[in-house]
Amino acid sequence: MKRTLHTLARLAVVLVLAAGAAYGQDYPNRPVKIVVPFAAGGPADVYARFLAQRLQDALGQPFVVEDRPGGGSVVGTDMVAKSAPDGYTLLLMSNTHTVNESLMPSKPFQLMRDFVAVAPINYSDLVLVVNPAVPANTLPELIALAKSRPGKLNYASSGPGTPYHMAGELFKSMAGLDIVHVPYKESSAARAGVLGGQVEMMFDAVTVMNEHVKAGKVRALATSGSVRSAVMPDVPTLSEAGVPGYDAVIWLGLMAPKGTPAAIVSRLNAEVTRIVSRPEVKADWAKQGAVAMTQSPEAFTQYLQDDIVKWERIVRLSGARADR
């Protein structure tokens, strides 16, 4: 009897694994939704649409991007957390999500509890820009100006917890500055605030702000990565221009609701990795200032956990808050 039960148990495991593998091979058999919890026009929206088209070409079903901004990414993210874990609703996320784990502890979901990591997409540097009316042509001049006018200079972001906000908080903390955070509801509005002179400065993705720098609408003082940006080689990094050790980027990735079959996660990871590894994609992104990221679901999970720890420390040291 024991031998029979043991045999049946092993058979059940084999059948479950076989069913999961078959489910993954059959996926997708209807349209897939990619929810972007940020406003249209920003890097997340742009790269979500880029990825959606190529996933559709590869997998033979529509991949539809739906922008659901609000609440510092909480609105759209919560919607995905409550969706069926069947691989047909995915989340386009960024380091806003890892920051929010400490910045917004009372939100209705927890990233590593309610989602599974699928695949990273890319990362890009940020660039610190100022409106041309600001009397500072270099980073040291901006730091000196800010120290001479404590609490008088403002920096814009697309909302609390976003990479633009936290890059500003890290700058404040490491340079010892008193500058004021002005949160907008979306990155395009924050960008317009700086271009129009309502706010003195902001950190923005080089992939979006570079064209405004080239047009002379803003002045680029420094980039945020550990090395100079390939699309702004003449602009120093913050680390080399006066804030040693500064390093902050914006990255994007895909997650799915907890419980999504491992076979589906594995298939999506393989397809995303294949897409972002294409030489023509890498070359095109390099011109924009973006660098492809490739990791297994397990490695991406560890990356997310490490990023949560990193930003928890910065949130604590900077005193950053979700309400300002």
Features:
single chain; 324 residues; alpha/beta; D-Maltodextrin-Binding Protein, domain 2; 2 domains; 10-stranded mixed β-sheet; 13 helices; 10 strands; globular
Backbone shape = globular
What fraction of the residues are assigned to beta strands by DSSP?
A: 15-25%
Assigned CATH class of the largest domain:
Alpha Beta
Number of domains: 2
CATH fold descriptor of the largest domain: D-Maltodextrin-Binding Protein, domain 2
Low-confidence stretches: 16-20
Helix fraction bin = 40-55%
Average pLDDT level = 92
Sheet with the most strands, sense and barrel status: 10 strands, mixed
Between the first and last Cα atoms, what is the distance in angstroms?
66 Å
CATH superfamily of the largest domain: Bordetella uptake gene, domain 1
What is the N-to-C order of secondary-structure elements (H for helix, E for strand)? HEHEHEHHEHEHEHEHEHEHHEH
Structural class: alpha/beta
Q: How does CATH name the architecture of the largest domain?
A: 3-Layer(aba) Sandwich
The counted number of beta strands is 10
